[in-house]
Amino acid sequence: MSDDPRLIAAIELLKTPPPVSVAERVMEEIRRLPHTERPTRRTPWLTWPRGVALALAAGLAAILLLPSGNNSLTPGAAEGIAQFVGHFPGARSVEVVGSFNNWSRGMLHLRDDNHDGIWHGDAVLPAGQHEYMFVVDGDRWVTDPLAGRFVQDGFGAGQENSLLIVRPAAAQP
What we know:
- The chain is an alpha+beta fold.
- The chain has two domains: 61 residues, no CATH class; 93 residues, Immunoglobulins (Immunoglobulin-like, Sandwich), CATH 2.60.40.
- It contains three helices and seven strands.
- A hairpin with a 7-residue loop joins strand 6 and strand 7.
C-alpha cells in the first residue's frame, strides 16, 4: 500500500457515509411512529399527528428552498440555466420576477456575496423566451440594462420588460 497522503485522504473520504437528506430524515421519523399513528392513504393529512405534518412541511420547504450542498443546477432536456446579474450598489435585496414565475416575488433571490453591489444568481428555466425584471429592496422594479432585448410590458406607459431566451442545456456546448 502506498504512503501517499492524497491516496490516504481519498480512502478516508470513501469511508465517510454520505449526508442524510431531509427527505430521508422525515421518512425515518414516520417509520418510528407506532403503527396506529402512521398516516394511510385513506387518512387525510390534516388528521395526522401535528408533529408529522409539520415535519413533512418543513422537509418539503427545505428541499425546495435551501440551496443544495454542491450548488449545481441540473436542467432537464427541455430546460436551461439562466444566469442573472445586476449592479445595484447599496441595495439590501434583489430578486428576479418574470413570466417564468408568474411575476411572483420571493421565489428567485439574487446574492451579493462580497458586498460590491454586483448581485447574481442562477435558475433552471424552461427553454424559450421569458420576460423579467429585477425587484430592488422590495419595491423598485428595474429593467435589466444588460439584457440586450426588451419588449413592451403591455400596460401602455412605454415601460419595457427585459427579454431572456433560454436554450435547452442539451443544445449548449
